[in-house]
Amino acid sequence: MDKKEEKDKIFKLINIGIALTSLFSIMFLLWTQLNHINSFASTWDQVDFALALDRYDLMAMQPHFPGYPYFILGGYFIHQFVDNKVASLTVFNILFYFSALYPIYKLSRIHVSRLSSLVIASIIYSSTYVMVMVNQPISEGAALAALWWYLWSLHLAMKGKGVGINILPPLLLSILLGIRLSYLPFAVGLLLLFYKKWKNGDFTFKQIVRYSIFAIMCQLIWVGALVFSEGSVKGFVKLSLAFTSGHFNDWGNSAVASDVSFLERIKTLIFHNVLWTGISAQKILLAVLYGIVVSLFIYQWKRGKFKQEFTLHLVWIMGICYLIWAVVAQNIDKPRHILPLVIFFLFILLIHVLKDTRNSLLYIICYLLIISQTYYSSRLIEQQAKELPATYQLGNYLQSLDDSAVVYAWEETRVLQYMNVTIPSKKVQTYQVFLHDKSYYHNRKILITNKVVEGFAAQGIDLTGKIKKIKEFHSNSIFDPVYNHIVLYEWRNEY
Prior knowledge:
Keywords: Membrane, Transmembrane, Transmembrane helix. This protein is mainly α. It contains 22 helices and five strands. It has a five-stranded mixed beta sheet.
């Protein structure tokens, strides 16, 4: 056997090994997800979604605006087979995101070999932070799945001419926005499709108008259902304006409401949210491995080996539009809002690095990535399903106290009420309201959380000497970066 034959044999063995590893990773993670289902509604949003399966009511924030109707519908369907409401939403996310392997693979096959496409699908699917968010009872997991199917439909529509293929993108965009309206910037993909088909002579102006009307009608399906649930257009508009105002001007921590500078927002979003959390899952090993892959990407970019193709153009343009949206309108305290940027970044990165290559070292790096992500993802999935979130720890502690106490908190109150904690819990944001309200509880122990204390400090109120720390609660910050650490204080009676 000459050196070339020996080298080919080794390369073939490496290919078989990474193919089997990719398949094992996918199936093992699915098994892990279904055997360790997260059934904790540990945040305000998660409680909203869980309560919606009992009674859908936007005014009661079951769920909050804009209603997420297709996500709730999916969770409701699973709830027919799974008793726990929270687990039903999580299972819907798991199964829907698993289905996204098909469009990920098919989109990859446009550019790379079958093996490379399988590797790309496995790396994106096993991405650790994505896995963590898919296993929470929030709409992100289902929205990411819908986003992949929508992107694939845009590719099909660009290549095909039949009516059936051309109505797929508007339909899937409707499903995407009916799951998560904050993914609205991805509608630019549909606009770009119309423009390209018109420019190529595949669409006339009349056809663009017809398909645009169809796209609007698709959105009106779920919007109309929400209006009907509210009872009137006026009531729905009033609710939507109130929520939008609150999101951009108050609690949403958007660029308008935040005290953080614009440059600081960009820095936090890109370096902490996208690179450190979203891609590396706050793991040094993953950061190093992805750093190597990025270096290879930059090397190929300098050599001008990038292929121009409609689908990649779509991913770039949609990603840039969402990046701008995330900087301006999303809450940078919650890295989950950048998940689309993570999957798009990985897709572009891996497509270019794995294109037309016989580099065994590159496949070994991908092998290490898959193994590492599978390990970290499975550990975090299990931890998230078993360990009590900090909000639940707080609830259990309060439940152990006698009824002669009242607790003032922020968003923790929603979780405490969902847990049916008997001690009264009140959401308070201003110091004057707190002083007035606590005056009604002379004979009760007054408890406040660190979020309330921090809120008062931001208002210029110094509570030094007025409170004493009595308990701390911790959970993994990657699950919830806002309420992973809760400190409970007691208000001194002399004040």
